[in-house]
Amino acid sequence: MSSRLEELDVFRGLAAFFVVLFHLTTRFDELYGHSLAFSFEIGKYGVQWFFLISGFVIFLTLNRTKSALGFITARFSRLFPVYWLAVIVTTTVVNLIGLPGKDFSLTTASLNLTMVPAFFETPAVDGVYWTLEYELIFYCLMLVVWQMKGLQKIEFICMGWLILQLSWLLSEYYTGYFPWKIRLIFMLDYAHLFMAGILFYRLKASAEGDRYNLVRHCLVILCLGMQCWIDNDLVSCGVVLGLFLSFYLFVYNKLSVICLKPLMYLGTISYSLYLFHHNIGFTLLHKLYILGIPSYVAVPLVMLFCIFIASLATRYVEKPALRFLRSQFTLRNHTTAKAV
């Protein structure tokens, strides 16, 4: 399998763009109201797309990982430096310009730097950051699986995980109770999406004749069924079915047509775009409305501004920090090996 899968970059870019479009149209209208006739409610399913992508990418990464510290360094360098910048910039913009219902103290901003403010019963400085907690939990769980040499038995682990999800749903239905810590630690609300991403990786990485592995396909179908049960919504089930189908097309090499440079560029800046668009975008959009700028002008302007900021953050913070931290890890390992 190629070390760089361009279709995944496109998936990332489209997922981020869909989420941004949902927030600047539908979500902003729900919270503050605007006269924009256009709404993009299905854009919220970009989050589900991200979780599918994470399942695929993290399993791919762990298959190439040589040490736990190497994996931790790679994930830390990818997530935290630009996230810290986003927390600082978002807090500053919201506090200086002002956004109704949002006002963050220094303590709140500081605890957000951990990426898990909910563990400290502290609100996130941006509404989209909740997904990062799930990402971190998933990384930890998968690192445990890797340490236990369970990657090649991942289908059995997925079966057990799905059974745990089923136990949660049945317990909630019949007793109205399930330990919330277990629900959080095992990400029972979204585990099926990460699992599906893992299974798609297994199908993609397997030999041509093994891509019809019945167990893996059945588990993918069960993951989709879990989505339908949890959301209990026909639209949700239909949209996520479309996301699953996009991965199937990718697995069977039918999506090379989407690998266009603008879409791949969106994929390059997708993480920064996700981090910087929400409260910063809302603050700027609210300010433009106060100044009398019509919505059909204000929304595209804010969208372009968010893409511009994400481009700067990716180029001058995210990528340099990633290169520096990973090079330091490589240098340290090389030095230690020579000393030994």
UniProtKB/TrEMBL annotation:
Family matches, as Pfam families: Acyl_transf_3
Acyltransferase domain sequence ranges: 6-312
Entry GO MF terms: acyltransferase activity
Transmembrane segments: 9-25, 45-62, 82-101, 127-146, 153-170, 182-201, 213-229, 235-251, 263-285, 297-317
Keyword DNA repair tagged: no
Source organism, top-level taxon: Bacteria
InterPro entries: Acyl_transf_3_dom, Acyltransferase_3
PANTHER family noted in UniProt: ACETYLTRANSFERASE (PTHR23028), BLR2367 PROTEIN (PTHR23028:SF131)
Name assigned to this protein: Acyltransferase
